[in-house]
Amino acid sequence: KAGVTQTPRYLIKTRGQQVTLSCSPISGHRSVSWYQQTPGQGLQFLFEYFSETQRNKGNFPGRFSGRQFSNSRSEMNVSTLELGDSALYLCASSLTGNNSPLHFGNGTRLTVT
Amino acid sequence: GENVEQHPSTLSVQEGDSAVIKCTYSDSASNYFPWYKQELGKRPQLIIDIRSNVGEKKDQRIAVTLNKTAKHFSLHITETQPEDSAVYFCAIRRDNYGQNFVFGPGTRLSVLP
């Protein structure tokens, strides 16, 4: 079974631009979560989508948004990029949701200059 | 908000020795407690998890113990090997709906040959 696939692997953007990251979950997984990983703040929850609906949201500004498609693939968008948005963005998929382990993708490394 | 503390932040052991990492949390509603291993430049991977109706779970050289009354759970690695060197994260599920996890800050384990 293919794992969680994230594209692109690396991105370099300028302050003020916007970016879209993509995530394809493991086949059969309907829950997709997004996490931001930085050396200073560690792994922080952004949001979770289940059956095309946002089910949970972390404490990030509205510049961070996402969506999920009918095939469970998910996208995350960050608008008006700031230097502090530089991070590894990890997508994780899981089965129905409750008490199912997260399966992480390899992440997208975003650098904002 | 929800908080997960993890100790120690770094741990060095000799090959063959045991390693123990402890996490404490504050949300008494949590009922699922996974541990993830992240090797340098790679994605976090689940190594073991435990649910609140179980006090201990073992998988070969890895075990997790849970004390729900005291709100802490620990990862135990026996007969450590150099390939165990990585950053280990504990996590709790923030509520009982969805996949909203709070991660500990991580423990960098170095196994010296």
Could you provide a short overview of the structure?
The complex is a heterodimer of chains A (113) and B (113). With 113 residues, chain A is mainly β. Chain A is built from no helices and eleven strands.
How would you characterize this protein structure?
The complex is a heterodimer of chains A (113) and B (113). With 113 residues, chain A is mainly β. Helices cover 0% and strands 53% of the residues of chain A. Chain A has no helices and 11 strands. Chain A has strands spanning 5-7, 10-13, 19-24, 31-38, 42-50, 53-57, 64-68, 74-78, 87-94, 103-104, 108-112. In chain A, strands 2, 4, 5, 6, 9, 10 and 11 form a 7-stranded mixed β-sheet that branches. In chain A, strands 1-3-8-7 form a 4-stranded antiparallel β-sheet, with no helix packed on it. By secondary structure, chain B is mostly beta strands. Helices cover 0% and strands 56% of the residues of chain B. Chain B contains no helices and 11 strands. In chain B, strand 6 and strand 7 form a beta hairpin. Chain B is globular and about 40 Å long. At the A-B interface, strand 4, strand 5, strand 9 and strand 10 of A face strand 4, strand 5, strand 9 and strand 10 of B.
- Structure class of chain B: mainly beta
Compute the gyration radius of chain B: what is it? 14 Å
The oligomerization state is: heterodimer
Described by strand count, sense and barrel closure, the largest sheet of chain A is: 7 strands, mixed
Q: Ends of chain A: how far apart?
A: 37 Å
* CA-based shape of chain B: globular
How large a portion of the residues of chain B is in β-strands, by DSSP E?
Answer: over 45%
